[in-house]
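Pipeline run #58 for the internal structure catalog. This entry was flagged by the ingest filter as a single-chain record with no existing model, so it goes straight to prediction. Upstream metadata was stripped on purpose; only the residue string is passed forward. Reviewer on rotation: M.T. Logging verbosity set to normal.
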Amino acid sequence: MIVESPAKAKTIEKYLGKDYTVKASYGHVRDLPKGNKAIDIDNGFTPQYEVLPDKKAIINELKKLAKTHEHILLATDEDREGEAISWHLAAALGLDSTKTQRIVFNEITKTAIVKAIQNPRSIDTNLVNAQQARRILDRLVGFKLSPILWRKIKPGLSAGRVQSVAVRLIVDREDQILAFKPESSYKVTAEFSVNGSQLQAQLPQKFKTLAEAEAFLKSCIGAEYTIAKLEKKPAKKNPSPPFTTSTLQQEASRKLSFPVGLTMRVAQQLYESGMITYMRTDSVNLSEAALKQAETAIKGEYGNQYHKKRKFKTKNAGAQEAHEAIRPTDFNRKLVTGDKNQKRLYELIWKRAIASQMAEAKLERTIVDIAISTNDKKLRATGEVLKFDGFLKVYMASTDDEPEETETKGMLPPLHVGQVLDFVQMEALQRFSKHPPRYTEASLVKKLEEQGIGRPSTYAPTISTIQKRGYAVKESKDGTNRRLEKLILAKDNVTKSHKTEVTGREKMKLFPTDLGNITTKFLIQHFPNIMNYSFTARIEKKFDIIATGNAIWNEMLKGFYTEFAAKVKHTQEHAERGESERFLGKDPKTGRDILARLGRYGPMVQLGRKEDEEKPKFAKLRSDQRLNLITLEEALELFKLPRSLGEYEGKKVSASIGRFGPYVRYDGMFVSLKEDDPYEVTLTRAIELIKAKKEADAKKLIKHFNADVQILNGRWGPYIKYHKKNVKIPKDVDPKTLTLEDCEKLFEESKNKPKRGGRGKKKK
């Protein structure tokens, strides 16, 4: 039996006897090679797959095993990606179709494995073709668009069918926020005393101006307040369905503060260890066996009245990824062993799944209208009493919606119609409308799913990629204080005062970078189809149709590529460079132009132009500054670097910002400023950092021959720094005994050694 991961293989081996050998392929074994020869466009988009370099040893091992075993079971994941892995394995291993079968299961339990073995099938070529179509189309888009970005914006950039549209969502939201003009209004709240208890009520409508609010409060002077209407209504809350891939990513982000990538890694670990069902699914359905198991667990733990069988309907009609929601494989297992993250995510999955099969929560909602004797407006108070907790005993789903100022909820004191209330005070407080919230990773996942962009299994790598590529950053920001006007009516007197609120505070939100902004605007201008939300969603639906066998994959690619290729050619030949330059004004001292633009190492401001007699000067933007927002005054401040701080031991000390961030320079030494601001750092603080750097360097230095050759202590042990090249020292050699000649010899030997594989290569 061949599966993807060794952890999965290890778990399955526990359930199967000595007649089975379970081995892992470590994911995909073949892929499209880099370069122009990967796809034969003229021959029906035929892909030219090759075995991945780091999988050759695994392929050889699996080939030997295939020859010595009677049957081969391909047991990769049940989604399209898993089907494609099985297909690639069959091709790479040259498997005999008469003794090879495909099996699928959505949980790693003995029952599920045995049932799968008893119900084998052949590889589903429709699913394989849907995966092939996505892989080839995404390669074509990325391979054709990226070089255009290198030429028209900046070298080293990348574009992608889903990636670029995800960045557009963030950019569009930022544009909405920048264009937003907050509107002021005044909300009225009244406080009453009822038999020693406090009752709060609000005026349902708001006033636009301070004068209107003040006029209302003055009209209430000397008023009598009575209960005009009291209405009690039964209400109920229903539980959310069990998790799909995207809802798990969203809820883990909100409740556990997990990035979506971490959620998927931990869920994979739980699945492979047999704790949960398959975690890449669009379905909210639960199997009959799972429903019965949940019923037994709920009745045993909480009582019969807490159980209610529910079957949820999957909204996405094209969902092909799996047949069941994410759930525990055993509902009686409330906790699992493992690391902290595994325990927390499992508990979240268990609670959500078990709650989905519990009774609704029953409430009693009370609405009270309070009449004012001096005018015809009414105040309103609301209260809520929980009569039966139901599923709330276990779990309450959260949302991404930012909290609104709503009517107060909670128990109200005993009240009756006609009752006169003891007035304490009334307040009219200024409020401001809020701009649309920036995306968190969770809310971006929700938006991508709503728009039908990509598939839930792609969201984690997509969000990770756009941050790694520098198109967006996830960060928190402190807010600023804003003054609010306030009116208070108490003891028949209206007084004015104010309070302060913090506005603009952001916690781990996604902000577009200048690079993301410029790249997105360029792609929208020249490739509106690729960047169109509905177009991207329609492509996904076409993949779904291919997966059902109702469309031919390479014909779908041909329909897309003909127009796309023509657009690529036209853009290469005629498009101007991406607009990344803003004229800010003239330097008051020299009269030279000051520009804000995207440079090779990121956003910067430029004093002077290339055609000027004097060379331009450059200054890097600060992390909180943006090309489209920076002002002339802010740009002039940036040119104050490098700052002279004074002298230390007769040598100059200065502060500046370079390619790798802010630093202090002293006697050819560069000391990184990790926490200090180069515009504010003092000479005293700079000397502290210089001393610390000297001390660290002294500990690092083992032997010094000249400026180009040194023996140093590194993270992985002693090494030779030879003319800016690092040379490894053999373990059996004492670095202190090395001579300059020895170092030269080791350097020459290192040039002839084969290079090791890069990062991400799996260790054998």
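catalog note: Residues 581-638 form one domain.
catalog note: Residues 30 and 51 are 4 Å apart (CA to CA).
status: ready for reviewer M.T.
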